Description:
By secondary structure, this protein is α+β, with helices and mostly antiparallel strands. It has helices at residues 2-14, 167-185; strands at 24-34, 39-50, 53-61, 67-81, 84-103, 108-130, 133-139, 142-146, 152-153, 156-166.
Amino acid sequence: MQKSLVIFFICFLLNGIQVNAQRYGTALGLRLGNSDINRTVGLSLQQRVMERVTIEGILQTDFSRNTTLSVLAQKHHPIISKRFNYYYGGGLSFGNEESFVKNPATKEIIHTYGNATTGVDLIAGVEMTLANAVISLDYKPNINLVGREEFYRGQVGLSVRTVLVKSKEQKKKQRQRQKAKQAKNQPQRKPISDIFKR
C-alpha cells in the first residue's frame, strides 16, 4: 500500500515537469530577515527580465539601527515543476548599519551606528508559487566593502509575495511589442494599383 502511494505521489509530481522556471513576471511582497545581529522587515519586488532570470530589489529595516537596500540578479532552475524552483545570484547592497569593533587589549567592543555601508550580497534559495502567491526561503550573505567593521554577515529570509503580472501575460506583452517594432521597421509596400496611377 505504501509503495503504491509513493509511486502515485511521484507520478503526480513528475506530471507537472516543464522546462521553464517561474509562474510569474512581477511579484511584490514582504520579507522577514533574521541574522545574529537583528531581525528585519522589508519589501521584496521581483521582476523577470529574461527566461529564468529575475532582478529582485529588497528594502529592509529593523526600525532601529539598520536599513539596507539590495539589488540582486537571480537565476532560477525548476526542481519539480515551474511552480517549485531553486535560485541563486548576487548584487550590490547599500545602507546605514551598526558596526562592532573589538579591542583585544581592553577586551571592549565599541558599538557604532549610522555607518553608511556598501557591500556585495549573494543569495541562494528555494521558492514555490501557489495560486497567486510566491513563497521563498533564502540565505543572503553580505560581504562588506565600505562602512562596517565586520567583513561578513549572513541572513536567512522568508518572503511572501503576491503575483502582480503572470508569466503568460508578460510574454504576451513582449510578443506584442516585438510585432509592433517589426511592423514599424518594415518598409510599407505600395499596392499594385499604384503602378497604373500617373
